[in-house]
């Protein structure tokens, strides 16, 4: 029932579409979501997750998961990030992947909704360390389309891999287009 409501709102009322799909057999992955230019991206992601019907997750500092909101953040797919014991963020998140049977972590490589001139590379190194694929997902506000690409397994050659990953985002327009990351910077290397 909830899925039908999501579909009605997302497709009929909001006028969005979803192209591509998630392979439900891939239980662990890093979902690379771009461009991230607006608070509205969160809701586009929630609707997409509800329609696609595949569990998707996110990480946040462990303090977010305390009473009274901890249950809500977990219910929304959140996983507390514990960096105690000297682990860096990449190692801590790779540990979450190791300890869960299903974990599909959505992350925005820009790290902010503001204009950036470079992407954070943590998502890439998390996928590499956890030995999981990266699934590029684009939110194109101009076409009102969520584009899901096929999974990509990082090779360790970040420059070559970024060219492949970012090609999925060519021509994509974020909600606040001037804040969108310019994929051409990497693609022209």
Automatic annotation (TrEMBL):
The keyword Transferase applies. Residues 30-142 form the Phospholipid/glycerol acyltransferase domain. GO terms for biological process: phosphatidic acid biosynthetic process. Pfam families: Acyltransferase. Keywords: Acyltransferase, Transferase. GO terms for molecular function: 1-acylglycerol-3-phosphate O-acyltransferase activity. Pathway: Lipid metabolism. This is 1-acyl-sn-glycerol-3-phosphate acyltransferases. It comes from Flavobacterium noncentrifugens. The lineage of its organism: Bacteria, Pseudomonadati, Bacteroidota, Flavobacteriia, Flavobacteriales.
């Amino acid at each position: 029932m909830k899925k039908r409501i999501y579909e009605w709102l997302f497709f009929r009322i909001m006028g969005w579409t979803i192209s591509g799909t998630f392979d439900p057999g891939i239980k662990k992955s890093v979902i690379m979501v771009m461009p991230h230019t607006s608070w509205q991206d969160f809701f586009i992601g929630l609707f997409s997750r509800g329609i696609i019907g595949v569990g998707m997750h996110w990480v946040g500092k462990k303090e977010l998961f305390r009473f009274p909101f901890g249950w809500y953040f977990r219910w929304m797919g959140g996983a507390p990030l514990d960096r105690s014991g000297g682990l860096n963020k990449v190692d801590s998140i790779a540990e979450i992947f190791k300890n869960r049977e299903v974990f599909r972590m959505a992350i925005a490589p820009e790290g902010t909704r503001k204009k950036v001139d470079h992407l954070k590379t943590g998502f890439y190194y998390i996928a590499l360390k956890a030995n999981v694929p990266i699934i590029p997902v684009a939110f194109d506000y101009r076409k009102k389309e969520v584009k899901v690409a096929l999974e990509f397994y990082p090779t360790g050659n970040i420059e070559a891999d970024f060219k492949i990953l970012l090609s999925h985002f060519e021509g994509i327009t974020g909600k606040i287009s001037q804040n969108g990351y310019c994929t051409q910077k990497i693609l022209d290397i």
